Amino acid sequence: MDEVETLQALRASATGRAQPLRTIRHVHVADKPFGIVAYHLAGDEGAPLAFMFGTDPDPAAATVVVVPEPRNRELRFEALAEFGEALNN
């Protein structure tokens, strides 16, 4: 049983009515979902070049964090800290 099937089983139990399993395969878990796009060096997922993230559907409203030199650990961790702060707020 996957996550959607488990959720639908819980909903069925709570409402006393059968819930559809195959007509939908997505579930809205938040009113304003947090979208994330990350771009990294080829072959090195641990060296991010940039992050774009936000809750607004308009890409122009997204926050962009760029790492000017992804091989520099200090710059990398500064960018990750900025992203982490936004993620936790």
SSE blueprint:
Layout: H1 3-15, E1 35-41, E2 44-54, E3 63-66, H2 73-88
Antiparallel strand pairs: 1-2, 2-3
Give a brief rundown of this model:
The chain contains 2 helices and 3 strands. It has 89 residues and is an alpha+beta fold.
Main traits of this protein?
single chain, 89 residues, alpha+beta, 2 domains, three-stranded antiparallel β-sheet, 2 helices, 33% helix
Please provide a written account of the structure:
By secondary structure, the chain is of the alpha+beta class. The protein folds into two domains: 1-29, no CATH class; 31-89, no CATH class. The chain has helices at residues 3-15, 73-88; strands at 35-41, 44-54, 63-66. A three-stranded antiparallel beta sheet has the order 1-2-3, with helices on one face. Strand 2 (44-54) and strand 3 (63-66) form a beta hairpin. The radius of gyration is 19 Å and the shape is elongated.
Helix content: 25-40%
Count of extended strands: 3
> Which strand order do you get reading across the main beta sheet?
1-2-3
Q: Please trace the helix and strand order, writing H or E for each element.
A: HEEEH
Rg over alpha carbons: 19 Å
Apparent shape? elongated
Distance between the termini: 33 Å
Low-confidence stretches: none
Question: Beta-strand level of the residues, as a percent range?
Answer: 15-25%
Number of domains: 2
Task: Give the number of helices.
Answer: 2
Rounded mean pLDDT score? 88
Describe the main β-sheet briefly. 3 strands, antiparallel
The secondary-structure class comes to: alpha+beta
